[in-house]
Amino acid sequence: MTDMAHERTFQLDLYRRMMLIRKFEERVKFLFLEGVMPGTIHQCQGQEACAVGVCAALTDDDVITSTHRPHGHCIAKGLGINEMMAELFGRTTGCCKGKGGSMHMGDLAKGIVPAVAIVGGGVPIATGVALAFKMRGEKRVVACFMGDGATNEGAFHEAVNMGAIWHLPVVYVVENNLYGASTPVRMVFNTDTIAERAAAYGIPGATIDGNDVLGVYEAAREAVERARSGGGPTLLELVTYRLTGHSRRDPALYQPEEEKARARENDPISRFRSRLLAERVASEADLAGIDRELDDQIEAAVVAAMAAPEPRPEDALDDVFAA
What we know:
The protein is an alpha/beta fold. It has helices spanning about 10-35, 50-55, 70-75, 80-90, 120-135, 155-165, 215-230, 255-265, 270-280, 285-305; strands at about 65, 140-145, 170-175, 180, 185, 205-210, 235-240. The protein has a 5-stranded parallel beta sheet, with helices on both faces. Strands 4-5 form a two-stranded antiparallel ribbon.
């Protein structure tokens, strides 16, 4: 892969995707608060650089697995917001025909395994997909997204060990937003970093500023190239921050105000926007034009989703498999 980190079109695409995630999440938040949208949500405002930076290092043929917080990963990997919005409204035009909702979004045609809401549950699945790629001789890679809490689950350790001993083409991506639900990571880890755990399995581990989209991209690109060439897994810890509650009913009162203030100053989109302007990659008018375009796309997605048909009771009998 050529070094695109400083090409204008590449950087503007990173900005566009991060801003699309932020605007999508903010619009969805208010749809839920207004009582218009059913179900529940776990949102990723503040973590956009993680999803976008990693997925920018992947090809269309590569695959991701996600978590109960999947919206950003899905957008970053190329899932359309029309299909996503319809899924959130439970409509038949949704990416999972309205049957998955927020926590089970995905589209295999886009390389997105429908998200697994069980904490750590996606790690063995990603490892299994990577095993399939290796057995078939396919030069494809899996990026396995997880939160910091997942790395304390037994499934994480079993699956990472398997990926390591079989040199599977998988990148284990830990989005360390400093909290497992409401529990600070410092209370549940006895190491300075999560990346240190990679040493136990004999694979590389790295701790990256998860709010620096270009830094995330460079680290992910190196890990993806290593996996694709037969070098095996890498454990990437992306240190970031969740600017919203764990779920839609969580006011996040456990996050100290001064900590939240620092996180807002370190917002990945504001940081990247400032960089684009300072390096004259884009003008204020360029970025404002992108913002308006995305606003229009999101409003169109809301209108289309609300007008889409709801599933029929008998649709529950479709897509069911018996052993």
